[in-house]
Amino acid sequence: MAKYEFKVGDKVKYHGVVCTVVEKCDLARNVFLIKLPQGGHDGFRYNSEPREKLEGNIYRYAFAEELTRVDNKPITYPTITAHLIEGNKTTVMLSDGRIGEVTCYYKDTFDPAVGVAEAYKKALGITKAEDKPIVKEVKRPANIGEYVKVVDAKRNFGYQNGDILKVILKLFNAIVAADNKGEDVAVWHSEYVVLEGYDPDIHGKT
User: Is there a domain that residue 5 lies in?
Assistant: First the structure.
């Protein structure tokens, strides 16, 4: 195959961005129509005019000499070499040494297959924001083991508004929780909201 010959479906690089050859649209000048990835690339908006937009993919004309062939070998991913399930927590180790760990929200029905799949995604680092469990802020007395966020601190005894604390003891009109330094603090029920679905390993610690 000649240097600048491409066929429909070939993966090519156009100015460093991987695209797909759609058709050869000008035989005389050896020009191809390529389809850029979802959303396109801002840099091309000034280099050529779009032929059309279809489902968010931007099409561009490109001279053959601007294109570089991409190896079409299948993409391979590391395999899971070991996994451990402890209660509702799942941990996986991959063949390249990466480790992923997820914890099922205590109110959800535990599914080991889902746990392994989510831990695998986390190990690969492909968990998106939209994949994270949704955190709901609920005004009610918290239970032991839950996380709360201080929203109306009335005293300055080791916590302030915005702090996220883990409940270690439940009282009649207050809770005892661990603050950011690991010390115990007493918080009135009126001072916090319960963070349902919150996981510090997924959502980050505050």
Answer: no
